[in-house]
Amino acid sequence: MNAARLRRPAATLAILMISAFPAAAAVAAAPLPTAAVRTADHPSDPLVWGKLLYQEGCASCHALSGQGGNGIPGVIAKGAAGTDFEVSTGRMPLGTIANQPIRRTRSLYTKDETAAMAAYIASLGVGPAIPSAAQVDWKNADLAMGGEVFRTNCAQCHSFSGQGGALTWGKQAPNLMLATPTQIYEAMLIGPNNMPQFSDATLPPAQKQAVIKYIEFLKEPANPGGLNLGRLGPVSEGLFGWAAGFTILVIIAVWIGVKAK
Amino acid sequence: MTHQHPVADPSRPQPANVEHEWRASDLDPSAARRAERQVASFFAASAAMIVLSVLVYGFTDWNATVGLPVVGDVNAINFFMGLTFGLGILFIGIGAIHGAKQLMSDVEVFEDRHDLESDDADRTALAETFSAGVADSRFVSSGIMRRSLLGAMALFPIPLVVLLRDLGPAASNGALTHTIWKAGTRLVTDVTYLPIKGDDVPIGGLINAVPETLLGVEERDGTLNARAKSVIVVVRLDEQNIVAQQGGTASAPWDYKGVLAYSKVCTHVGCPISLYEQTTHHLLCPCHQSTFDLADAGKVVFGPAARNMPQLPITTDADGYLIARSDFQVPVGPSFWERA
Question: Do residues B236 and B308 lie in contact, with contact meaning Cβ atoms separated by under 8 Å?
Fold first, then answer.
């Protein structure tokens, strides 16, 4: 087989792959809520509006009554807090079938729409309410205690610096640097996806606030400056040290060894 | 003396036969002077950098920062002192090596190697010295000295045997097979030491727990060892999702309404693990990816661990708080030599 005959199918394949990529991305981004119930003249009663939004954006998987099924979790027990967490982080509605919902850069719903859906789901049964501003007020919490609780109960998955980490079968614990205090509180309350719940009985509100304070501290820790290399500790720092340091040492060794002209 | 045994193979091209390539600085005096000036410039630059680094130390605001591309903001005094001091050392090195390469004589020098063996006279002399020493020590002629020395040497290792015995199971006093968990010991949350009501644990919940009695163990009595062995994870599953447990009867189950307690110490090499996925009921060890199914008697479903995660039998006391029914029924942590 000569080179020219080999080249043509390879080029065709490459062009196909390059052109298929934006198409695939467009398909992945497509199944978003339509505008039918998202106009300015929405129903004024949040329960009615929330029901419409739920039926349009959520009911196809979680079922009309919110009980889920076919391996899809129900939404009732997750309550208003769970609704606010999943929708405000952009994890729901699910865009593509993946092994876990992933945070979007922004929510697909406005704050009012999210509140309406949360109110509707809260009306379906008993579930945790969205924590109030006073509940998530972490300003006066105990930072040192928050650090201890975080390292005991959260760091195993989210890493000691809150950067997240790997779980089984491609699942992952997310980076916490984008999570708002309310979202962190909600996550501890409801245990979204594979995260366990941390109930008020064993992690009282004061400790939850302390954990939030510690995560807020991790977002902007006392920083002496320099390249943080992801704050992953010895793995990335060691790799950088070996790769950069060794390269420089090899270059110097080669220069020393070359005979002068 | 027979020192004429060069190992070098005369048929191989000798360095002396390779024509020497002369450098520009060997042939041209002006090139040599230029190299000299270059070396001196490096040394002068080094001196300037060292002076600069002292000036940086004296005159830089200690709180000032400097923005660098990619790296971001860094403390100015750290950055400039490191830069100038580092360049100062580097320029001395560059100057010295540049001088050596350009100006020091680079004529090839070769040395022949010789056999490592000593010559016969030296070997004979050594043998004679040794024999004379043996005779002088009376080791052969005096039976009583020889026998008492051999007896003393034979007893010498006995203290080592006594000391090494302490590493074995006979002296471990059950340390490998028991923890401080006892019947009736309350489970409390790790770090915060709150007792746990069995009915307060939500389905899908996770609690990192320790025995309440841990607080009473003094440091000199090995509180760290006690903690390392007795740490547990407490989870709650929907009871119909529990496939199997490691023990218990209908009247005395090892769980409390689906609340399960398992050791937190990986059975592979002992990492503490609490990466619990509440929907799969899997406990993952981040060290080598051993995965245990807490819904199915702590069975290993993936990874290098060889043994199930040991389960702690629990129940509740009169006030509804979780307590241990007994210590672990199998040793916790990694396998060891004598483990049944």
Answer: no
Tell me how far apart the alpha carbons of residues B84 and A254 are, in angstroms, rounded to a whole number: 25
Contact residues, chain B, for A202 at CB < 8 Å? 189, 194, 196, 200-201, 205, 207
Please answer whether residues B232 and B312 qualify as being in contact, where contact means their C-beta atoms are separated by less than 8 angstroms. yes
How far is it, in rounded angstroms, from Cα A116 to Cα A136? 21
What is residue A221's three-state secondary structure? coil
Report phi then psi at A225, rounded to 5: 95, 180
pTM above 0.90, yes or no: no
Residue type, B191: V
Mean pLDDT of B34-45: 96
Q: Which two tokens stand for residue A201?
A: 């009985």
Token readout for B185 is 């010991």
Instruction: Give dist(CA B134, CA B145) in Å, integer.
Output: 13
The encoded tokens of residue B22 equal: 């002369």
Nearest to B72 among A193, A225, A259 (CB): A225
- Measure the CA–CA gap between B317 and B340, rounded to whole angstroms: 32
pLDDT over 50 (residue B107): yes
Q: Return the residue in A168, A189, A256, A259 with the most chain B beta carbons within 10 A, the one to mutate for interface testing.
A: A168
d(CA A56, CA A64): 10
pLDDT digits (tens, 9 = 90+) for A144-162: 999 999 999 999 999 988 9
Amino acid identity for residue B42 in this structure: F
Binary contact (B302, A261; C-beta < 8 A): no
* String of DSSP letters for B229-260: HH-EEEEE--GGG--B-SSB-SSSBSSBTTEE
pLDDT digit string (tens) for B120-160? 999 999 999 999 999 999 888 888 999 999 999 999 999 99
Query: What's the one-letter identity of residue B335?
Result: S
C-alpha span between B21 and B27 (Å, rounded) = 11
Q: Using the structure block, give the residue that is written with the tokens 């959260």.
A: A154
Tokens of B219: 């440091």
Taking the CA of residue B277 and the nearest CA in chain A, the distance in Å comes to 5
Residue B230: name the closest of B157, B326, B117 by CA. Answer: B326
Average pLDDT for A1-18: 53
